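Colleagues,

Please find the record for the two-part complex below.
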Amino acid sequence: MTATRKNQVIQVLLIDDAEYEYVITETLLEDVVGMRFELTWASTYEDGLEKICSGNHDVALLDYRLDDGRTGLEFLDETDRRRIDCPIIFMTNNSDGNIDAEALHRGASDYLVKGEVAPDLLGRAIRYAIQRAEHVIELRHSNERYDLALQGARDGLWDWQLTDDRISYSDRWWSMLGHDALPTDADRPGAWLDRIHEDDRDSVMTAIHSHLDGLTSHLECEYRMLHADGKHRWMLTRGLAVRDHEGRPTRMAGSQTDITDRKTAVEHLLSHVSHELRTPLNAAYQFLTILLDGLAGDMTTEQREFLGIVLRNTNQLRTMIEDLMSVTRTTTGKLTIQPRETRLETIISERVEADSIGASEKNITLTAVIPDGLPAVLADPNRIHQVLGNLIGNAIKFTPSDGSIEVHARIPEENDDQLQIDVIDTGCGIAQDGLAGIFEQFTQVKRDLDSGRDGLGLGLYICRDIVGRHGGRIWARSRVDHGSTFSFTLPLASCQGPGANHDDSPGIPCGTGTGRATRLT
Amino acid sequence: MTKILIVEDDHAARKGLGIRLRAHKFEAVFAIDSVAAVKTALAERPDLVILDLGLPGGDGFRVIHRFQDLAPLAEMPVIILTGRDTHTNRQRAEEMGVRAFLQKPADNDVLLARIREAIGEKKPVD
């Protein structure tokens, strides 16, 4: 509606059963300076309704008393029901009491008292009514757009009043969790937090507190949430805190999106790609080792050396594929840990034996230092194999020739219900600023000029995830030019929690994570 | 001589594995799909089967079921060697009594160790 533009004739509808009001109004409108009007008169309720529904008018002037004893208030209700956009100015008499307030409540945009209306007052009231109506329409369109966008995006909304710890969720927020009716805890933050998967709760709380403390620009976290059907769905929440003048958060609001399908699709894609990559990789590995093992005849030292380089790169590719699948499972929560009573000395000596071939190529001494009578831990042997393989592999990579690597296992003095494993190298070390994000995804610390990029930067991230899922902790200390120590802890089997499996058998062997080093001689 | 049936549809993998096994004094026989796997197993009576999961004519799990349904093959040890995901397939294989689940490319030493365990050899033959 653009009726307020200059030189435009404003279409005014008068709904009043008295003809003299029509005459008076027409006179008043003629005297308004700077605006031109065309007045239409409707003398009855029905006539007024028909004309206002036609949409040809920019503004309506509505009398309180209409024909047949009906009132302008009823008329307002009717236009509200019919979602008429035309702004209505209510006309009352002095004797009509509180009708004016009632009219505004029912949707009139203004009211004027008959007999007190001067031309400039009427002109101003009409101009403001039209402007307000335009804003209302704009706002409604904007809300509709927003609703459409939300429906299209299938997002749910939440709004958390931190001052009194109340939270409101949109209907969509609930329906995406399978709740068509609101549950009893619908206005508590607990409704949200209690439905988050146990394993994800800590990371969500950390993300929330980091944002409330001003450490992050916005809240963003992914987690699994309990659906009404008893299964978990993957959700992504994004939010922003509102702060008072002292920077204290008072309110936080945001959206929640169901990303289960996306997660599943990524996993399927990676699983498929990984399978397809393994077939040519398998053939390359087999024939390389056939040549290197002399099964196809003798080779010169140089040929052997070059093929050794190819093999090492092939092994690197294999590790990358394994890391990629591991990290996919980590992010989809599907990396399963099957803890059982496990003797760590067996795993460490197996690992050290397997990796000693790679170490000896660089003339690095790799030894395990394990005291007698070490108690068993509660751990998944395959996963711990993977962690140790990663830490030792890194140590070999970053330790120069003639260095040494030691793997220690011991009960730490400060915490005797855990076992601590240290992988200590005499490598080039990592600078303090490099240590900070070393366990994050895609972090590749450049430890020396020649090391280059030979991994996805996922290994330590996977290690942290695996150790964390065991209830342990992983950390690193380092001094440049002196070496690094990577340590992690595992709970002792004697201090086990619920769900522990006492089966001490190693299960059927699994190729994953073993035998990265291959005989080259 | 210990006879091993290799069920593998990828030509290069079949050939490479055959060379490796013969080098370690095993006899290798081959099948390239799930139907041939059962036929060859019945004809050759191998001491062990190394089985791929993704096969033409039905996957490796169906082959194991067929083995188990046929009295002469029911006790034959099976090692799975596949490019498929360990995570989703290993447990199922374990429940079906498979002796080892290896993912391609499997380390030669690990594969040979599993073969020896499966056929009950205590010491390496070579």
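Confidence is low (pLDDT under 50) at residues 122-126 of chain B.

Comments are welcome before we finalize the supplementary table.
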